[in-house]
Specification:
Number of strands: 0
Number of domains: 1
Membrane topology: Multi-pass membrane protein
Distance between the termini: 35 Å
InterPro entries: Flag_MotA_CS, Flagellar_motor_stator_MotA, MotA-like, MotA_ExbB_proton_chnl, MotA_N
Strand content: under 5%
Largest sheet: none
Shape: elongated
Radius of gyration: 27 Å
Number of helices: 12
Subcellular location: Cell inner membrane
Pfam families: MotA_ExbB (PF01618), MotA_N (PF20560)
Protein name: Flagellar motor stator protein MotA
């Protein structure tokens, strides 16, 4: 919703100001200029990116119109689930969760936490490291190093759409200049026409520069920034799981391990100690 509102504000401010200054909107409607700028930008993106980056970017674009699922309710559910898992391990041993890990969607331990289970990547991350804990062949330092490497890979992979859009936005002003230069060339070859018609051709040529800059900084550039923010939000869930499991491996009780995980969350979504404690109690009573 904020993306749409933002675009409306951008268009309203730019085009509204142009109209208030006495400009005519018809002169800004230059589909040929848009074809030149957009086509060149898309073509350059195809040259400069592999199919993996392009597919990831196309998949990520629809998410900019959706609100974040990483809110307080999501984190409360995640930490309550981690508390239940660690409590079961403490009472019944690591081998007791082996069956739960293999089919989490069918497990009584996991299935009631629908918000978390629906996140395939998060559950895969959690399941993999619980398996390593069950195997008993790795210490906390080895697991932490492996987690750090995986999180780094996740971050680089998740950043591809943001980098794609950033590079696309960076190129648009230059392609706008290309379109403007082409318009000037066309104007110069028509130098013998009446001044009134010549002025129209010059105006059309300058629209190319305007469109390139507007598209770059008003539309494409902000998408890159938003995708980076969404990536950082998704990374917090992995960091929460990482810190909680490592605290458990170092011998801390489930309640204290979950508190370690709570502390890495952003303050805007982080539940208070009392809120989390109450949520865990309510979960036990169900």
């Amino acid at each position: 919703m904020l993306v749409i509102v933002g675009y409306i504000v951008v268009c309203g401010s730019v085009f509204g100001g142009f109209i208030l200054a006495g400009g005519h909107m018809a002169v800004l409607f230059q589909p040929i200029e848009l074809l030149m700028i957009g086509g060149a930008a898309v073509g350059a993106s195809l040259v400069g990116n592999n199919s993996k980056t392009i597919k990831a970017s196309l998949k990520a674009l629809p998410t900019i119109f959706k609100g974040s699922k990483y809110n307080k309710a999501m984190y409360m559910e995640l930490m309550t689930m981690l508390f239940d898992v660690l409590t079961k391990i403490r009472k019944e041993g690591l081998m007791s969760i082996e069956g739960d890990i293999e089919k989490p969607e069918e497990s009584p331990l996991f299935s009631k936490y629908t918000l978390v289970v629906s996140d395939h990547h998060l559950m895969e991350f959690l399941g993999d490291y619980l398996r390593l804990m069950v195997s008993g062949n790795m210490d906390a330092f080895q697991i932490e190093n492996l987690m750090d490497n995986e999180l780094e890979t996740h971050h680089h992979e998740g950043a591809m759409p943001a980098h794609f859009m950033a590079k696309l936005g960076d190129g648009l002003p230059a392609f706008g200049i290309v379109a403007a230069v082409m318009g000037v060339v066309h104007t110069m070859e028509s130098v013998g026409i009446p001044p009134a018609e010549l002025g129209i051709l010059i105006a059309k040529a300058l629209v190319g520069t305007f469109l390139g800059i507007l598209l770059a900084y008003g539309f494409v550039g902000p998408i890159s920034s938003l995708l980076e923010q969404k990536l950082e939000e998704s990374s917090k869930t992995f960091q929460c799981v990482k810190v909680t499991l490592l605290a458990s491996l170092n011998g801390y009780a489930p309640a204290l391990s979950v508190e370690f995980g709570r502390k890495v969350l952003y303050s805007t979504e982080r539940p208070t100690f009392s809120e989390l404690e109450e949520h865990i109690k309510q979960s036990k009573s169900k």
